[in-house]
Design a protein that fits this description.
The complex is a heterodimer. Chain A is an alpha+beta fold. Chain A contains 16 helices and 20 strands. Chain B is an all-alpha fold. Classes of the chains: A alpha+beta, B mainly alpha.
């Protein structure tokens, strides 16, 4: 402890002069909104929580499940999963971890006051039972294969903090006690977050004594801070700067494919779609030939090369191949403008029709530019395109429920989907399955696509505990959806992180797009 | 004068109320915060839960009355994003912004007034001409670009100043200030200069014009005739009379510096209110936006009030005419 204090004092004295080998300074694009790991179920918060807290099951860099606070898990019958907990794990305050903490966490996590996005997503409909100090049963009414994936998203906290613990108590550090590689020290919102190595960690100890996180939202400033050596590591390297950074000898770039597909969603429920003109009230997007024409007219290679500066991968399905439940038979649609024109003519639109593409301009990498490129490409096959992009704060509400009776407002939109679970069930459930609010299906199906055959396969997959069978069902559902062009996939996002060579760091790119210091290692 | 001040106070309260109505309803017609804040893998039930958690299930006019009755008790709502009281979050970041605005104001005065007066007293020297043409740059270059250029030159190329963030702080009266440490000062230098540029140019222009006008007045001729030194004439008689328009404008500018230092704070990742507000707007954190705008209104009303008082101290005529009413 004394050593830590001395080091802290030394770091304070020399802060800004040079980053000592033991202190890593990080320039982060998005700041977490709380230190309470159950307050806000969203990317930046979950990424940061992963440093201080752990879940029963961890996800590695490619979202494969690995043992965390649970050493093993298996279904003991159709509706019960058994988790064997790790022994000898201590929380940062020295108390022991056991089943009581797990039960306590699962009771608290879905019920945090004012939570804008609840962890109930992963816990609802499940009951948990302590069998002994190191065994927990998770019980559902119906067979539920996603149990391990769901529980890998919930951060375990110490039951010692008490049931009435508040988000503010986590923010002040009083209750921010986890089992993770790093201990929480201090958070000055908008300014810094400090964490320190947990020397009592059960697994591989953290590579660094201290991590100092600075939120720097502005892209050029974040890159400049790295170049100036004020920070050793940044995330969300803007695509426009990648070429320049490659020429810097003291910067190391790490790029990795993400689980996020950028795609087009089409109005599949209105005959007279509001942003389609020149068709006498018919909706051409109902016709597979028209959808196929649109897909063929898009030059994915060109978008990747020009708009994304080479930092993306053309997409042919809902998740990059290799992820659980993807199909080996689906390839990105090749560019074929002539074929597209022919299909349009066959469908009865030789002169095209009027169509507006709507999209956000501050959500995905280069989103507005992609929408413009799509507009130009579709104009070339005769569709009279208009492009409208807007801030995400306006776009998503309208796109989801901006029309009459809370229906989606637009006819043709550019959006993205990241699969939090790392398997195809996530996009299939939310984007492809028919909208079914009661059973939680199709929540982001903004085209209101509906295909009973796909629905049936998805539901069947979600009730199949056997991994091999489920994987085959998901792949089948993906093929049906993509061959019917329920959505038109464009590309998979590639994320880039950058480190300074002199700091001797290397980041292992993560498919879940998270910036977490477990994946930041010494070179 | 008291009658005048009372009337101004009543006006101010009316302005604050009207603003509360406009701001609240204006902010609430844009989008839906839940769509931004919720995890994309939500189901309909979770969506409804989030709507209730944020209090958005009530009809808008009811939300307004809840807001208004809480506001009268000094509670401007709980941030959707941060889950803590909006006022607390703004107050947390106020010192950083005040420090930045104060430093910028200080630079505008200590650089702007002497340069402007010099250019006014010797309008034909080449130094004056370069000061005046240089001030055009201060007006015309966009803050964002200048900020990035400064970072490139002083942080990346020369490596003499830190690129972003706020440096070490010292706690005085329970508030953290960074201008009291060397490290803090180096962090403050670039953002302060960047924020001050426009105002330095403005003050140069105002004091130059003021000086040239005052120099021709009869009382300056009289002072010369009385045999006062040029130094005394400039530093006392000219300076005092030049300052009136400068104070008026700087009073209003101080408000702008505090309330709208958004660009500078974003470029330099300065943890102040400006950065908070712009990020809150992007994710529709309505309580923060409303609280912030309400505070801004209060700030401007107060500053205008104070400016009126400073006027009367600088210019006896205002005092006299105020008393006459």
């Amino acid at each position: 402890m004394k050593r830590i204090v001395t080091l802290a004092a030394a770091a304070a004295l020399f802060a800004g002069a040079s980053a000592s080998a033991q202190t890593v300074k990080v320039g982060l694009f998005s700041e977490p909104s709380a230190m309470d790991p159950h307050y806000h179920n969203l990317g930046p918060n979950n990424a940061f929580s992963s440093n201080v807290y752990e879940s029963l099951i961890l996800q590695d860099e490619s979202q494969k499940l690995t043992p965390g606070l649970a050493v093993s898990w298996k279904p003991v019958n159709d509706t019960t999963w058994e988790f064997k907990l790790r022994k000898g794990v201590k929380f940062h305050d020295g108390s022991d971890f056991n089943a009581d903490d797990v039960i306590f966490t699962f009771e608290r996590a879905p019920n945090v006051a004012n939570s804008p996005s609840t962890f109930g997503t992963y816990l609802k409909g499940k009951s948990f039972k302590k069998i002994d100090d190191y065994t927990v049963h998770a019980i559902t009414e119906k067979p539920y294969p996603l149990m391990p994936v769901d529980l890998s998203q919930v951060w375990i906290i110490s039951s010692d903090v008490g049931a009435d613990v508040t988000t503010a108590q986590f923010n002040s550090g009083k209750a921010a006690i986890g089992t993770g590689q790093y201990k929480f020290i201090e958070w000055k919102p908008g300014d810094t977050i400090l964490i320190e190595r947990n020397d009592g960690y059960w697994g591989d100890k953290a590579a660094f004594e201290r991590v100092e996180v600075k939120p720097i939202k502005s892209n050029p400033s974040r890159v400049a801070a790295l170049l100036a050596g004020d920070v050793d590591f940044i995330d969300n390297v803007p695509t426009a700067d990648i070429e320049r950074l490659k020429t810097e000898s003291d910067i190391v770039l790490a790029s990795g494919i993400s689980n996020r597909v950028i795609y087009l969603h089409m109005d599949r429920f209105r005959d007279d779609s509001p942003y389609i003109t020149g068709t006498n009230g018919k909706n051409p997007l109902f016709d597979l030939r028209v959808r196929k024409a649109i897909s063929k007219a898009i030059n994915r290679e060109a978008i990747v090369a020009r708009v994304m500066e080479g930092v993306a991968i053309p997409a042919g399905q809902l998740l990059p191949p290799g992820f659980f439940g993807t199909s080996e038979n689906l390839k990105a649609e090749p560019y074929d403008p002539e074929g597209a024109k022919k299909l349009l003519a066959e469908a009865g639109y030789p002169d095209g029709f009027g169509l507006t593409i709507h999209g956000p301009n501050d959500r995905y990498i280069n989103d507005a530019k992609i929408a413009q490129a799509i507009g130009q490409m579709l104009t070339r096959i005769g569709i009279k395109m208009k492009v409208e992009t807007m801030p995400k704060s306006v776009f998503f509400s309208s796109a989801s429920r901006g029309g009459p009776n809370k229906t989606p407002k637009y006819s043709f939109i550019l959006v993205g989907w990241g699969s939090g679970t790392g398997e195809a069930s996530s996009p299939l459930k939310s984007l492809v399955h028919s909208k079914d609010a009661a059973n939680g299906f199709g929540a982001s199906n903004r085209g209101r696509y509906s295909n009973p055959e796909a629905d049936k396969l998805i539901e069947e997959a979600l009730a199949t505990v056997d991994d091999a069978k489920r994987e085959a069902l998901l792949a089948k559902a993906t093929e049906i959806a993509i061959n019917d062009l329920a959505i038109i996939p464009l590309h998979y996002q590639v994320n880039t992180w950058a480190t300074r060579k002199e700091a001797g760091l290397k980041y292992l790119p993560r498919t879940d797009e998270r910036t977490q210091f477990r994946s930041l290692v010494k070179q | 004068m008291w009658a005048y001040l009372t009337r101004r106070l009543a006006q101010a309260i009316a302005v604050v109320f009207v603003m509360a109505v406009i701001v609240f309803f204006g902010v609430n017609v844009i989008g839906n915060p839940v769509d931004i804040l919720i995890n994309p893998e939500f189901t309909e039930a979770e969506y409804q839960q989030a709507i209730r958690a944020l209090g958005l299930h009530l009809p808008l006019h009811e939300q307004f009355f809840v807001f208004l009755s809480n506001a009268l008790e000094g509670d401007l709502g709980i941030s959707f994003v941060w889950g803590e009281p909006a006022l607390k979050l703004i107050a947390q970041r106020l010192p950083a912004t005040l420090e930045l605005a104060g430093a910028a104001m200080f630079l505008s005065i200590v650089l702007g007034v002497p340069l402007g007066m010099y250019a006014g007293t010797k309008p034909h020297s080449w130094v004056s001409k370069s000061i005046v043409s240089g001030s055009i740059l201060g007006f015309s270059l966009p803050t964002f670009w200048v900020g990035i250029m400064m970072i490139m030159v002083f942080a990346v190329m020369l490596g003499i100043l830190p690129s972003t963030g706020r440096g070490d702080t010292v706690e005085v009266f329970g508030i953290e200030w960074s201008f009291l440490t060397w490290n803090g000062l180096t962090h403050l230098a670039m953002p302060a200069v960047n924020l001050a540029l426009t105002n330095i140019a403005l003050v140069i222009r105002l004091s130059r014009a003021g000086t040239r006008e005052v120099m021709l007045q009869d009382y300056i001729k009289f002072a010369r005739a009385k045999g006062l030194s040029q130094r005394r004439i400039t530093l006392v008689h000219v300076l005092k009379n030049t300052l009136i328009p400068v104070v008026t404008v700087l009073g209003l500018e101080l408000g702008s510096l505090i309330a709208f230092s958004v660009v500078t704070e974003t470029v330099f990742a300065w943890p102040g209110m400006g950065k908070l507000i712009i990020e809150s707007i992007q994710v529709l954190d309505r309580p923060i936006v409303v609280a912030y705008l309400m505070l801004t209104v209060l700030l401007f009303v107060t500053i205008n009030f104070l400016v009126d008082i400073v006027y009367s101290l600088l210019d006896p005529r205002v005092r006299v005419s105020g008393a006459g009413k």
